[in-house]
Amino acid sequence: MTREQGGAEAPEEGAVDLVVAGAGGGLAGALRAAEAGLDVVVVEADEAFRRGNNTSMSTAMIPGAGTRWQRAAGVDDSAESFLSDVLAKTHGEADLTLATALTGFSAELVTWLADGLGLPMELATDISYPGHSVTRCHTVPSRTGAELLDHLVARTRRHPRVDFLTPARLVEARTGDGRVRAAVAQYPDGTREEIPTRALLLATNGYGADADAVRRLMPEIAGAVYHGGEHSRGDALRIGRALGAATGYLDAYQGHAALARGAGTLVGWATIMHGGVLVNAEGRRFGDETVGYSEYAAMLAAQPGATGWIVFDERVHELCLAFGDFRDTVEQGAVVGADDADGLAARCGLPADRLADTLAEAARHAEGATADAFGRGGWEAPLRPPYRAVRVEPALFHTQGGLAVDGGARVLREDGSPVAGLYASGGAAIGISGHGAGGYLAGNGLLPALGLAVLAADQCRDGVPA
């Protein structure tokens, strides 16, 4: 166990200004607070967190509405339009206060990441994601969370006002005079350290690694592969509840139907949005793939053998090489190819006649000759041989419910009053995806992870009463 010193001196009272539990998206809050002159301690349970948490596993897509990147690309967008998309995707179930705050802050967040932290942000103009009415996802050149997190880690470790405590798990928050006064960290050998603090940000993600909780709260995805941080075990829920915090949307999650079976890499939904199709073990499509990769995970889990194949062509393949995760999938040898449908069926072990019929029918839909029985429209282009395919299985990426928070990331009790000095972000908070998996929009993981962390830091900076 190590305590990495950034060189900061604690305030005279012996308390740091902010403890951040979790070195993923919470690092944005640590940096925001430190740059405002606050002293911060980051507590992280996993020494390998740079490759072992959900931020690093993401595609680094951060939605921003009304940014300069959008204006340069001729994209007309606004916070109001973004909020409308969130409410439409969640069928009005998203928490309105939080959704309004995050969509309204989204452009400022992306701008600060670029101008304040030096992240090489760009607008992903070559891909449309389900539910977003315009192009608004901003990302880094590799389109990998690893690049995003590496940048945050490097900036944080260089900052003189930030200390790291790792490996250490936050296990308790102690209060006095009606507010958070200390955070308790536990080391792997069982010893504990109390850190006096004026505020605590819980950025420990959700509870996706707690198989029992997943089976109880979201049984439709319980049999899927968990593809997330191993320390996402509901620590924030336990700590917050002990202080009287309310919770919400505990059945909400981000699923994914494009995890390469065997390789464990993310194929990515760009394969679908550029014109690919997903077939089951019988060679049949079973829905409108463009409704969203999150809800499609449970649909794939219900298919024979809980597996399927994403089928695409050379055009789609070339377009998807822009994504680091897709390149990893190719390098792992998970993508197979063939000159025609019969050859592809043989490579994949699929019924040749049925696969050929499925691809021919999809091509007619894409050409506009026939309407898709599942309602899929807006086909980018028909698939043409030679074909490629990759076997996929459903996955649970992270939960989207947690502690109730307001628009400033303050944790709330059942009566709506704040737990003084306690904040939550990312999977530790309720999120803006409504219930279940269907309300998830691309970026609904990173926007609350980064955005709420920064908003919490601003509250601490401004001395806003918690």
From TrEMBL:
Cofactor(s), by name: FAD
GO molecular function: steroid dehydrogenase activity, acting on the CH-CH group of donors
EC top class named in words: oxidoreductase
Superkingdom: Bacteria
One Pfam family cited in the UniProt record for this chain: FAD_binding_2
Record's keyword terms, sorted: FAD, Flavoprotein, Oxidoreductase
Enzyme Commission code(s) on record: 1.3.5.4
InterPro entries tied to this protein: FAD-dep_OxRdtase_2_FAD-bd (IPR003953), FAD-oxidoreductase_2 (IPR050315), FAD/NAD-bd_sf (IPR036188), Succ_DH/fumarate_Rdtase_cat_sf (IPR027477)
Gene3D superfamilies: FAD/NAD(P)-binding domain (3.50.50.60), Succinate dehydrogenase/fumarate reductase flavoprotein, catalytic domain (3.90.700.10)
Tagged with keyword Repeat: no
Keyword presence, Transcription regulation: no
Biological process (GO), any one: steroid metabolic process
Residues in FAD-dependent oxidoreductase 2 FAD-binding domain copies: 17-435
Protein name listed in UniProt: Fumarate reductase flavoprotein subunit
Organism the protein comes from: Spinactinospora alkalitolerans
